[in-house]
Design brief:
Length: 96
């Protein structure tokens, strides 16, 4: 789209994240309404969803106060002869 001269931009955002046992999930949607100068309003939107599952038994704790995931602590360290922590993850993204 290039540069868009605008009078104002309204952004709306929704985010969801958390974990339950070996499962962790996160999703975000963003909607932007651009009131451009000399033209009709423009609308942009996008988002993503992702999920992961630790098949070696670990969990990824979610810190609600800070709004971030905490570090994963392997149940059986790779450096001590274990498998470490392995996660199967998928993510989908869209943007107009």
């Amino acid at each position: 789209t290039g540069n868009v001269p605008a009078e104002s931009v309204n952004l709306f955002n929704f985010e969801l994240a958390g974990s339950r046992g070996q499962l962790n999930y996160q999703a975000e949607l963003t909607y932007a309404l651009v009131n451009q100068m000399g033209g009709p309003p423009l609308v942009f939107y996008g988002g993503y969803a992702q999920a992961g599952w630790f098949f070696t038994g670990e969990s990824k704790p979610y810190n609600r106060k800070a709004g971030v995931f905490d570090s994963v602590k392997p149940l059986h360290s790779f450096f001590d002869g274990g498998w470490g922590a392995w996660e199967l993850a998928a993510r989908g993204t869209f943007l107009n």
